[in-house]
């Protein structure tokens, strides 16, 4: 499913900040990892 980048960015940043606020470093790490992987893929696709 395609999600506009700005919507994905808001949602993943929310997940990251919620995890940090909950003092859950593993959840924050996972959320950040998924955010980076998703954005890397979007950038790669946009360059084709």
Automatic annotation (TrEMBL):
One GO MF term attached to the UniProt entry: DNA binding
Family matches, as Pfam families: FCD (PF07729)
InterPro entries xrefs: GntR_C (IPR011711), TF_FadR/GntR_C (IPR008920)
Gene3D superfamilies according to UniProt: GntR ligand-binding domain-like
Alphabetic keyword roster: DNA-binding, Transcription, Transcription regulation
Keyword Phosphoprotein: no
Superkingdom of this protein's organism: Bacteria
Tagged with keyword DNA-binding: yes
Residue ranges constituting the GntR C-terminal domain according to the UniProt record: 6-36
UniProt-recorded name of the protein: FCD domain-containing protein
Organism per entry: Blautia obeum
């Amino acid at each position: 499913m395609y999600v506009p980048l700005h919507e994905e960015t808001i949602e993943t940043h929310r997940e990251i900040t919620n995890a940090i606020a909950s003092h859950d470093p593993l959840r924050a790490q996972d959320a950040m990892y998924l955010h980076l992987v998703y954005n890397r893929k979007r950038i790669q696709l946009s360059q084709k």
